């Protein structure tokens, strides 16, 4: 039996290209709790999140660097084989708008027109592209560099995510029009047809009880609306995986077993119909409600990762932790044991993962242009990794091991 250390070394050596040690064949699918490529080789996804869901409806960072340079930086790092690229439903209501027009008309309290010259300087071929075409171009560019892409339906009205009162949290919330959401899933699935490196689309980022519903009503409405959304993706682009998230900011999958048989009937039918294409996702941060963060070398037994997120692998489905991360700018001592616990959870249950987040700043956030993000792996102008040691922590899951060892 492999020790945890040996399993760590084995997973690290295989993370980029699966067990075959070669470039993956597309499309990807599910085989039991594994994600496999088109040749049946097990794939361990090591992803990084690249935001594109803010008010300008463009992938971040293009005011600082060329798209190709950012992609090359990801590919050459050796840490990642996948990008989770976020977008807003609003992207498709503005599908005829160009990047230039979006900077001119963005729904923010600051003047963003200065970015037009910046993006024109670094990405002259992008500035007059229509917004969805920019996402398509980025997915193609990532694929050409050997990086797979998961498209994340992050929010409805473009902007910062997430809070209980942003109007985007739950089905039929202020901005969460269910039909528009389904249409956007189908539109993104269609947009990515013919780009084999786009391996999956998720249904929705961080559903949350923004309407103050009872637990039973949340479960019932999830079962009501989710099957149609899965069909929207799979009927449009059968090649891609569909990622299904849970409740409470993607911290909870145990609710699935709380639905009664009649509520679950259609959900179970869809899982069966598209069984080779369904995977589940969860999010883990130190503030997530999995129990108190262990400190000073305490063990992880008090944390409820398995109880809250384990429904997926306990029922034979793969899972990706599609957001994990920490404040890179002020790495706290109590993160040491927490990172160790997340590492063990990933290794024990054979999970893929995605770091939040790539970029050093946003075009605008909270009324500030070029707003920095302390969780970003790149410096504010996206020109280099903030810290080579931080990058090393991300190398094929080594970020978990070396982050722990560094603090020993």
CA-based shape: globular
Mean residue pLDDT = 89
Number of strands: 13
Please bin the fraction of helical residues: 25-40%
Point out poorly predicted stretches.
1-21, 396-408
Strand content: 15-25%
Sketch the topology as an H/E string, one letter per element. HEEEEHEHHHHEHEHEHEHHEHEEEHH
Q: What is the structural class?
A: alpha/beta
Structural Rg: 20 Å
Give the strand order, joined by hyphens, for the main sheet: 4-5-6-7-8-9-10-11
| Intertermini distance | 27 Å
Number of helices: 14
The description of the largest β-sheet is:
8 strands, parallel, barrel
Task: Write up this protein.
One of its GO terms (molecular function) is hydrolase activity, hydrolyzing O-glycosyl compounds. Residues 1-25 form the signal peptide. One of its GO terms (biological process) is polysaccharide catabolic process. This protein has 408 residues and is of the alpha/beta class. 35% of the residues lie in helices and 16% in strands. It is built from 14 helices and 13 strands. It has helices at residues 4-14, 67-77, 90-93, 99-105, 114-122, 131-144, 178-191, 215-234, 261-273, 305-309, 311-314, 335-349, 388-394, 398-407, and strands at 29-31, 34-36, 42-43, 46-50, 82-88, 148-155, 198-202, 241-244, 278-284, 319-324, 352-355, 361-365, 368-372. An eight-stranded parallel beta barrel has the order 4-5-6-7-8-9-10-11. A three-stranded antiparallel sheet has the order 1-2-3, with no helix packed on it. A two-stranded antiparallel ribbon has the order 12-13. Helix 7 (178-191) links the parallel strand 6 (148-155) and strand 7 (198-202). The longest helix is centred in the middle third of the chain and has 20 residues, at 215-234. The radius of gyration is 20 Å and the shape is globular. The two termini are 27 Å apart. Residues 1-21 and 396-408 have low confidence and may be disordered.
């Amino acid at each position: 039996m492999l020790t945890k250390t040996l399993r760590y070394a084995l997973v690290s050596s295989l993370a980029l290209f699966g067990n075959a040690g070669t470039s993956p064949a597309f499309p990807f699918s599910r085989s039991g709790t594994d994600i496999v490529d088109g040749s049946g080789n097990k794939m361990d996804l090591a992803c990084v999140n690249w935001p594109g869901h803010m008010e300008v409806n463009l992938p971040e960072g293009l005011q600082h660097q060329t798209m190709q340079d950012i992609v090359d930086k990801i590919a050459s790092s050796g840490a990642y084989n996948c990008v989770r690229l976020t977008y807003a439903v609003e992207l498709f209501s503005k599908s005829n708008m160009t990047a230039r027009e979006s900077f001119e008309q963005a729904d923010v309290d600051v003047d963003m027109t200065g970015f037009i010259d910046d993006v024109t300087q670094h990405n002259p071929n992008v500035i007059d592209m229509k917004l969805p075409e920019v996402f398509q171009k980025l997915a193609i560019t990532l694929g050409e560099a050997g990086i797979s892409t998961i498209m994340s339906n992050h929010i409805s009205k473009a902007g910062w995510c997430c809070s209980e009162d942003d109007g985007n949290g739950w089905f039929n919330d202020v901005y969460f029009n269910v039909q528009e959401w389904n249409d956007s899933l189908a539109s993104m699935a269609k947009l990515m047809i013919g780009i084999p490196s786009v391996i999956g689309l998720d249904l929705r980022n961080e559903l949350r009880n923004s309407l103050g519903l009872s637990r039973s009503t949340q479960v019932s409405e999830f079962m009501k609306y989710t099957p149609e959304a899965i069909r929207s993706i799979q009927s449009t682009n059968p090649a891609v995986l569909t990622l299904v998230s849970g409740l409470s900011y993607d911290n909870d999958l145990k609710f699935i077993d709380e639905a009664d048989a009649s509520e679950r009937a259609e959900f179970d039918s869809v899982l069966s119909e598209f069984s080779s294409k369904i995977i589940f996702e969860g999010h883990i941060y130190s503030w997530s409600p999995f129990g108190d963060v262990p400190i000073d070398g305490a063990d992880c037994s008090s944390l409820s990762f398995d109880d809250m997120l384990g429904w997926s692998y306990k029922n034979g489905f793969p899972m990706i932790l599609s957001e994990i991360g920490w404040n890179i700018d002020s790495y706290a001592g109590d993160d040491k044991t927490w990172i160790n616990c997340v590492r063990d959870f990933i290794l024990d249950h054979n999970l893929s993962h995605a770091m939040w987040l790539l970029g050093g700043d946003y075009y605008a956030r909270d009324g500030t242009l070029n707003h920095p993000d302390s969780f970003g792996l790149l410096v504010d102008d996206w020109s280099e990794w903030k810290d080579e040691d931080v990058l090393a922590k991300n190398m094929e899951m080594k970020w978990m091991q070396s982050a722990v060892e560094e603090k020993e």
